[in-house]
Amino acid sequence: MAVYTQVPAEALADFLGRFDVGTLVSVKGIAEGVENSNYLVDTTDNRFILTLYEKRVAEGDLPFFMALLDHLAARGNPVPPAIPDREGRLIHELEGRPACLIRFLPGVSVTRPTPPQARAAGRAMAGMHAALADFIGERPNTLGYEAWMPLFDRCGSDLDTIDPALRPVLAAALEQVVPRWPKGGDQMVIHADLFPDNVLMRGDIVTGLIDFYFACTDLRLYDLAIMHSAWCFDPPGNHYQADVGQALIEGYAERFPLSMGERAILPTLAMGACIRFALTRAWDWLNTPADALVTRKDPRAYTRRLAFYANNGGQVFL
Ligand SMILES: Nc1ncnc2c1ncn2[C@@H]1O[C@H](COP(=O)(O)OP(=O)(O)OP(=O)(O)O)[C@@H](O)[C@H]1O
Ligand SMILES: N[C@@H](CCO)C(=O)O
């Protein structure tokens, strides 16, 4: 998360007055993340996360996200539902932005996952997929494979200001991956951003799955490919951690065994994940407001992963 919209203490105290959550004790902006504005809020009763939805989250999608969190929480998944106000409303407006008060979950996100942590996280994703089998909501993936080329074009030659190698590398990958993207397949609602920073853990136990604001209808295995690309490399993307990768896949496959056909498409899906995150990181790099409390993420960490999957994808998922 990040802080793009400042919330004065008086406005927050008024806002909390709509809920049965006690009164404001303290509030702190959370610097992690890049998408929405987030605050850690302590009241006389409890601790909460206050999220103000920014740029990429459409207000009209919020009911879908809230229904998704309720569905998962009701089936025992460790996700944080939004807190209703006294009139039962979940979605509010604060400082001109859509806003929700969200249950705080314990745990910390790991930056260098160990194999046992990756195994537990793979299991947690499988548990989430199993629980979503009967979820009836749908949301198209606005950052799916059809959106990549237009986003690449919108970044245009500005990409060269980040690194002159970015444009040719991404152009070649788009040409390779987009025509091969599997059409149809096992589609369902997926998380689509289950990075280590969106999984809270205590030791090797998963205590929270958070940040569902990219959740969408897409290939189930694309969710696993996104997770693999995010969990199984050192943060700069220079080194693949084979033991972490193996544990992640095994943890997931306990519930959803992978067929040979599925293993064969995973390299393409993983390359697609790398294109998606390299492009959105590049776009954000070029368009982040100078005054936002946010740490920009390097798109090249994803072109390095892309090169790895292009060269080794076949072996990694066998
Ligand atoms: N429900 C929660 N309980 C506890 N901590 C939370 C909760 N939601 C968010 N956080 C904390 O806030 C941080 C940022 O949250 P989050 O990843 O949702 O932000 P974002 O801007 O959407 O980020 P991203 O760049 O991953 O899309 C998390 O790393 C976590 O520490
Ligand atoms: N998890 C993403 C941010 C959300 O698009 C990244 O690290 O680039």
From TrEMBL:
Against InterPro entries, the record matches this protein to: Aminoglycoside_PTrfase, Homoserine_kinase_II, Kinase-like_dom_sf, Pseudomonas-type_ThrB
Per the UniProt record, which EC number(s) apply here? 2.7.1.39
Q: What class of enzyme is it?
A: transferase
Q: Which GO terms describe its molecular function?
A: homoserine kinase activity
Q: For this protein, what reaction is catalysed?
A: L-homoserine + ATP = O-phospho-L-homoserine + ADP + H(+)
The answer to whether the entry has keyword Nucleotide-binding is: yes
**Keyword Transferase belongs to the record:** yes
**Where does this protein act, in terms of pathway?**
Amino-acid biosynthesis; L-threonine biosynthesis; L-threonine from L-aspartate: step 4/5
Report keywords, A-Z: Amino-acid biosynthesis, ATP-binding, Kinase, Nucleotide-binding, Threonine biosynthesis, Transferase
Q: Residues in domain Aminoglycoside phosphotransferase?
A: 27-253
Fetch the PANTHER family from UniProt.
AMINOGLYCOSIDE PHOSPHOTRANSFERASE DOMAIN-CONTAINING PROTEIN, AMINOGLYCOSIDE PHOSPHOTRANSFERASE DOMAIN-CONTAINING PROTEIN-RELATED
User: In which family does this protein belong, per the annotation?
Assistant: Belongs to the pseudomonas-type ThrB family.
Name the UniProt record assigns to this protein: Homoserine kinase
Organism for this UniProt entry: Sphingomonas vulcanisoli
Its organism's taxonomic lineage begins at: Bacteria, Pseudomonadati, Pseudomonadota, Alphaproteobacteria, Sphingomonadales
